[in-house]
Design brief:
Strand order of the largest sheet: 13-14-16-18-17-15
Strand content: 35-45%
Radius of gyration: 41 Å
Largest sheet: 6 strands, mixed, barrel
Distance between the termini: 176 Å
Number of helices: 20
Shape: elongated
C-alpha cells in the first residue's frame, strides 16, 4: 500500500475543515445554534437565541487535557471563553405579546366570544391571586424537576470526576439596565476519600466503602463586576468559593447528607446602583403585568374557564402544600450550611441633603461574617436536651466582628456613628420542619412543639453622635415609619390566623456588654482648648440583658402570649471636658422591666418596672449647655411640623392611653435630683436645690372595678411577678351594676405614692450646709376617669400626711436660679416665637377613641393632715403658719372650696428665742369662690365672690412684740419677690419697684362671717400681778 503523501494529508485535513462549515450550517438551520469555525482546541464564535429577546454568545469552547494533581484531580478541562448572555426586556415583552396573539387567533370563535371578558378581568386584576398561585405551583414543579435532574446527574459521577469546567469572562447583560461580569469560574467534583472525608471533623460519620462514596463539588469565582447603564463599574465580589459535600449511595440517587459551604471574600453592595438598575428595568418593561400572567389569563379567558376566589390564607396554605415535598426533601438531605464573608460593605444615598446641597451617604461595613446552620442528630444529648426524639431540629450560629456604620456628607472625612467589636448569635429551632408540616387541626400541644431557642451576645457596642447628626437620624426614622397602605393592612388582617399558628414557643436571650453612647459637643472652655478639641457627653452601662419567653395556650384556644424581662446595671451619664475632667449627670444602679403580653387574639399588656438608686445632676453650666444644643437640634425638625398639625380635642392624658395597656406598676428607691446654676447678674456662685426621695411607686389600671386575677391559660415565666390579668369575658366589664360605662376609657386609674420626700438647698460656698426647705413623709395622688349622667369626668385626688416648708428669700432665690436653669436647658424659645405666627384656622382633628362630644370636667380633691410653713424674714421676728386638716377641691355642681378645722399663725417669742407665740388662731375655716349673677337694668353682670366663714377667730399680741416689724417684713418680702421674679423672667437688671401711677383694680367681692371674734393683748407674766 502506498504511503500517503503530505500534500494528500493536508488536502484531507483541509477538506474535513471545509466540511465543518457545511455541518455548522445544517446545525444552524435545524437548531438555531450558530458556530463560526473550529479552532485548534475547540469551537469558536458560538451564538444562539433560546427565546425571543435572549441571545447567548460564546467566543470559544474547547477541551484542555492535563495530568491530574493533588489540587486538581481531573484529566481534562472544559474551557469556555467569553460567555455572554444578552437580555432585551423590550423584545421579551414583544415576543410574549406575539405568542399571545397567535394563541388567541388559533382559538377562533372562543376567543372572540370571551375576548371582552378576558380584557376586563385582566385589567382589574381580579384573577391576580389565582394566577400567582398557578405560577407558584409551576415554580415548585420546575424546582422538583431540576432536583431530579441533579440526582440523575450524580449517576454519571464516574465520568464527571474526570472533567472540570473553566469559564473565562462570563457576562450577563440586560440592555438598557446594566451588566454583571464574572472574570473566571472553575467547577469540579472530587470523590477521593482521603481528601474529602478529612474535612468533615465531628459533624458526620465517614463514608462506608461498601455502599457509600464521598463526593465534593467545588466552585471558585473571581472578580464579579456590576456595571449599571451609563455608570462606572463596581467590583461587587473579589472571590467566592462554593463547596457541596455529601455521600453517594449505590442504591439511591442523589447526594445524601449534604453540606454546603460558601466563602466570600470582599463583598460590596452598591445599593444606589442596584436601585437605579431596578428602576430602569421597571421602566423598560412599561410597568405591565408580567407576560406569563398575561398568557395564563388570556388562555383561561379564551377557554371560558373560571376559578373560585380563595382567601389569602387558603392561597398561602396551598403554596405551602405545593412546596412541602421539595422543601422537606431539602431538609432531609441537607445536613449543614456554612456561609463566611471576609468583608461586607454597603453604601446608600439618603434622601436628606445638607445645607450645601451635598448628598449624604450611609455606609455599613463588617468583617468576618459567619453563618453556620446544622441539622441536629436526634440521638445526641444536644438534641434531647431541648427537643423530643421525633422532632427535626436545626441549630444556627451567626458571628460578625468589627461592625461599623456611619455617614459621609462630603464636608469632612466619613464619620463612624456605630461600632460593634463582636456579635454572636446561637439559634436552636424546629420552625422550618414544623412550618412545612403545619396543619389546621394542630392542637395546643402540637403548636408548642414548634420551639425556638435563641441567644445573642453583643460585646462593647459604641455609638458616636454629633448634635448635627440628630436631625439626620430623625429624618431616616421618619422615612421608615411611613404608614402602611390600606391594602397591606387588610392583607395582614387576613393572615392573622395563619401567622398565629406559625408562631413558635420561644425562649430568646439577648445580652449586651458595656454599651457606650458618646455625643461630641463644642468645648466650653475655648481659651484652653485647641482647634480639634471637643467635650463629650457619655452614657455607659455595665451590662444589658433581655429575655423573652412565649408559648401557646394549653386549653385548645388560639391564644398566644409572651413575657419579656429587661435589666441593666450600673448606668452612668456624665460630661467630660476637653481637659479630661468628669462631671456626673445621672447615675443608676439597677433598672428592671418585666412585660407580660397577650398577643392573640386581643392584644393586652401588663408591665412592672423597678428602678434602684437613681440620681440626676444638673449642676454645671457646660452640661446644661450641651443638653440645650441637643434639644435644639432634635426640635428643629418639629417646629415646621407643629404649625400644620390639626388641633385635637382637649382630653385628659389618662383617656389618651392606648386601650391595649391593661396594667403598669413602677417602683423605685433612693431617687434624687440636683439642679443648680449661676446667676451671672448677681453672683458667680452656684446655687440651686436638691430633691431626695426614699421610695416611690406608680400604678396604672385600665379597669378599676375589675377584680385582679391571674390568667393561667398561658405559661408565664416563673421569674415574673404575679401580674394581674383580666378574665376573657369582656361583657363583665361593661355590665357593672353600679354604673354603665359610655366609653372604654372610663374606669382608668393612675396612682402615685411618694415616701420621705426632702428638699435641700445647694450652695457652692458652703457645701456642708444641710439647709432643708421641704419635707413630705408621705404623699399620694390618684387620677381616674368616669362618666356620669352629664358627661365625662376626670378625677384628681391627693393626700399628704404632712408637708413641712421652710421659706426665706435666700431659698427663694436659689430655687429661682434652678428653675431658670431648667427653662434654659429644656425650653426652646423658638416655640414661643412661632406660636403667634400661626393665626390661620386649622381643621379639627378626628376625635380620639374613647372621647365623647361633651366637654370633660376635672374634679379635684386635696387633703393635707398638717401644712406647716416656717418663714425666715429679712429681720426679726420669724414666722410660722400651721394648718391642720387642710381640704380643698372643685366638684361638678359646686364652687371651689377650701376648709380646715384649725389654722394658726406664730411669731418667734420676743423674750424666748426658742419658743413660738401665737398671734392668730382660726377654728373651722371655710373659703368658697362663687360666681354671682346680678341684673342691673337690662344687663346681667357676673361677679366673683370670696366667702370666708369661721367659727372662732383669735388675734393676740404677745408682750414686747413690735407689730409693725411683721408688716415691714411682709412688705419687703413681697417687693423683693417681685423684683426677683422679673429678673428671672427677663434675665436683666431692670429695676421695677419704682412707684408709678396705676389704674383702678377690680377686686372681687369678699364676705367674712365669724361666730366668735377675740382680740387679746398680752402683758408680762410677772408684771400683770403688780
Amino acid at each position: 500500500m502506498p504511503i500517503p503523501s503530505i500534500s494528500l494529508l493536508l488536502g484531507l485535513v483541509l477538506l474535513a475543515y471545509l466540511s465543518t462549515f457545511a455541518v455548522f450550517a445544517v446545525i444552524r438551520v435545524l437548531t438555531g445554534v450558530s458556530i463560526q469555525r473550529v479552532g485548534y482546541s475547540g469551537f469558536r464564535r458560538l451564538a444562539f437565541s433560546p427565546r425571543h429577546g435572549v441571545r447567548i454568545t460564546v467566543r470559544g469552547v474547547g477541551l484542555s487535557p492535563h495530568r491530574p494533581t493533588f489540587a486538581l484531580p481531573t484529566w481534562c478541562s472544559l474551557v469556555i471563553t467569553e460567555l455572554r448572555v444578552t437580555v432585551d426586556l423590550e423584545e421579551l415583552g414583544k415576543g410574549a405579546v406575539g405568542s399571545l396573539k397567535k394563541r388567541a387567533h388559533a382559538n377562533g370563535s372562543a376567543s372572540s366570544a370571551n375576548g371582552d371578558t378576558g380584557k376586563s378581568r385582566a385589567l382589574d386584576g381580579t384573577e391576580e391571586g389565582e394566577n400567582d398561585d398557578g405560577a407558584h405551583g409551576k415554580l415548585w414543579e420546575r424546582l422538583n424537576e431540576i432536583k431530579e435532574q441533579v440526582k440523575r446527574l450524580h449517576g454519571q459521577i464516574e465520568w464527571l470526576r474526570l472533567v472540570d469546567l473553566v469559564t473565562n469572562t462570563v457576562e450577563l447583560c440586560v440592555v438598557g439596565v446594566g451588566s454583571v461580569c464574572v472574570e473566571r469560574a472553575n467547577v469540579s467534583v472530587d470523590t477521593r476519600s482521603q481528601t474529602v472525608d478529612r474535612s468533615r471533623l465531628f459533624q458526620h460519620s465517614k463514608a462506608k466503602g461498601e455502599v457509600q462514596q464521598p463526593a465534593e463539588w467545588k466552585c471558585l469565582i473571581r472578580s464579579m463586576l456590576f456595571t449599571p447603564e451609563g455608570r462606572k463599574s463596581t467590583e461587587v465580589l473579589d472571590y467566592a468559593t462554593l463547596s457541596v459535600h455529601g455521600l453517594l449511595h449505590r442504591e439511591l440517587q442523589g447526594l445524601r447528607d449534604a453540606s454546603v459551604a460558601l466563602k466570600l471574600g470582599r463583598v460590596n453592595v452598591p445599593s444606589d446602583d442596584i436601585e437605579y438598575a431596578q428602576q430602569r428595568a421597571v421602566y423598560l418593561r412599561g410597568l405591565r403585568i408580567p407576560p406569563e400572567q398575561d398568557v395564563a389569563r388570556e388562555r383561561k379567558t379564551a377557554s371560558g374557564e373560571s376559578e373560585p376566589h380563595d382567601t389569602p390564607e387558603e392561597r398561602i396554605v396551598r403554596a405551602i402544600s405545593d412546596s412541602r415535598a421539595f422543601i422537606a426533601s431539602i431538609l432531609r438531605g441537607m445536613q449543614e450550611v456554612q456561609l463566611a464573608v471576609g468583608f461586607f460593605g454597603l453604601s446608600k444615598r439618603l434622601s436628606t441633603q445638607t445645607h450645601f446641597d451635598r448628598s449624604i451617604y450611609f455606609n455599613l461595613a463588617m468583617k468576618e461574617v459567619g453563618l453556620d446552620i446544622l441539622r441536629l442528630d436526634s440521638r445526641t444529648p444536644a438534641h434531647r436536651m431541648y427537643f423530643a426524639r421525633n422532632d427535626i431540629a436545626h441549630q444556627g450560629l451567626l458571628t460578625a466582628i468589627a461592625i461599623s456604620a456611619g455617614i459621609d456628607d462630603g464636608h469632612k472625612h466619613p464619620e463612624r456613628m456605630l461600632y460593634v467589636p463582636m456579635i454572636t448569635a446561637t439559634v436552636k429551632t424546629t420552625l422550618p420542619s414544623r412550618a412545612i408540616h403545619m396543619s389546621s387541626h394542630d392542637s395546643a400541644g402540637d403548636r408548642n412543639t414548634n420551639v425556638l431557642y435563641a441567644n445573642l451576645v453583643c460585646t462593647s457596642p459604641s455609638v458616636d453622635l454629633d448634635p448635627h447628626h440628630l436631625p439626620l437620624v430623625l429624618a431616616m426614622l421618619k422615612g421608615r415609619d411611613a404608614p402602611a397602605s390600606r391594602q397591606k393592612q387588610d392583607k395582614s388582617a387576613d393572615h392573622h390566623h395563619l401567622i398565629s399558628r406559625l408562631l413558635p414557643k420561644a425562649s430568646i436571650k439577648i445580652s449586651i456588654q458595656e454599651p457606650v453612647v458618646r455625643v461630641s459637643l463644642p468645648p466650653m472652655d475655648t481659651t484652653r482648648a485647641s482647634e480639634d478639641d471637643f467635650d463629650l457627653l457619655i452614657s455607659t452601662t455595665s451590662s444589658m440583658a433581655l429575655e423573652l419567653e412565649s408559648s401557646h395556650s394549653q386549653h385548645g384556644q388560639m391564644h398566644y402570649g409572651f413575657a419579656v424581662n429587661y435589666r441593666h446595671t450600673s448606668h452612668e451619664l456624665y460630661h467630660q471636658t476637653s481637659a479630661s475632667e468628669r462631671h456626673d449627670l445621672m447615675r443608676t444602679d439597677t433598672c428592671e422591666l418585666k412585660v407580660d403580653v397577650n398577643a392573640i387574639p386581643d392584644a393586652t399588656v401588663t408591665a412592672f418596672a423597678r428602678l434602684q438608686t437613681c440620681t440626676v445632676y444638673l449642676v454645671r453650666p457646660d452640661i446644661c449647655e450641651g443638653i440645650r444644643q441637643i434639644n435644639r437640634q432634635m426640635s428643629s425638625s418639629v417646629l415646621a411640623k407643629s404649625d400644620h398639625q390639626p388641633t385635637s380635642p382637649k382630653l385628659s392624658f389618662l383617656r389618651k392611653v392606648p386601650a391595649w395597656l391593661e396594667y403598669v406598676r413602677i417602683e423605685g428607691n433612693e431617687f434624687a435630683v440636683q439642679v443648680a446654676g449661676v446667676d451671672k447678674i448677681l453672683s458667680h456662685d452656684t446655687r440651686g436645690f436638691s430633691l431626695e426621695l426614699e421610695s416611690w411607686s406608680s400604678e396604672y389600671r385600665a379597669h378599676r372595678e375589675d377584680k385582679l386575677q391571674i390568667d393561667h391559660r398561658r405559661r408565664i415565666s416563673a421569674r415574673l411577678p404575679s401580674s394581674p390579668d383580666k378574665t376573657p369575658d369582656s361583657q363583665s366589664r361593661s355590665s357593672s351594676p353600679r354604673r354603665a360605662k359610655e366609653t372604654f376609657a372610663d374606669g382608668r386609674r393612675l396612682t402615685v405614692h411618694l415616701q420621705n420626700l426632702e428638699g435641700l438647698i445647694i450652695d457652692s460656698i458652703d457645701d456642708d450646709a444641710n439647709d432643708s426647705f421641704l419635707s413630705v413623709p408621705r404623699f399620694e395622688v390618684a387620677f381616674s376617669t368616669s362618666t356620669d349622667a352629664t358627661g365625662p369626668v376626670f378625677h384628681i385626688n391627693s393626700h399628704a400626711k404632712s408637708i413641712l416648708l421652710a421659706y426665706s428669700l435666700y431659698r427663694h432665690y436659689a430655687i429661682g436660679v434652678a428653675v431658670m436653669v431648667i427653662k434654659r436647658t429644656f425650653y426652646d424659645d423658638r416655640h414661643a416665637i412661632s406660636k403667634p405666627l400661626a393665626t390661620t384656622a386649622r381643621p379639627s382633628a378626628p376625635q380620639v377613641p374613647g372621647s365623647t362630644s361633651a366637654a370633660e370636667i376635672t374634679t379635684i380633691d386635696c387633703r393635707i393632715g398638717l401644712l406647716q410653713v416656717k418663714a425666715t424674714m429679712p429681720s426679726d421676728p420669724r414666722m410660722m403658719l400651721q394648718v391642720f386638716g387642710f381640704e380643698a377641691g372643685r366638684h361638678r355642681w359646686a364652687s371651689p372650696f377650701m376648709r380646715c378645722p384649725l389654722a394658726r399663725l406664730y411669731v418667734r417669742a420676743p423674750s424666748a428665742k426658742a419658743a413660738w407665740s401665737r398671734i392668730i388662731g382660726v377654728k373651722a375655716l371655710r373659703v368658697d369662690l362663687r360666681d354671682i349673677k346680678r341684673k342691673h337694668g337690662s344687663t346681667t353682670v357676673t361677679e366673683k365672690t370670696v366667702d370666708l366663714a369661721v367659727e372662732t377667730v383669735r388675734i393676740g399680741v404677745p408682750h414686747q412684740l413690735v407689730v409693725h416689724d411683721i408688716f415691714d417684713n411682709i412688705t419687703n418680702v413681697v417687693k423683693t419677690t417681685k423684683q426677683m421674679q422679673h429678673n428671672f423672667m427677663t434675665e436683666s437688671k431692670d429695676y421695677i419697684l419704682t412707684k408709678e401711677p396705676e389704674g383702678p383694680k377690680r377686686v372681687p367681692r369678699v364676705s367674712f362671717r365669724a361666730q366668735l371674734f377675740v382680740f387679746d393683748i398680752e402683758d408680762s407674766s410677772f408684771e400683770w400681778k403688780l
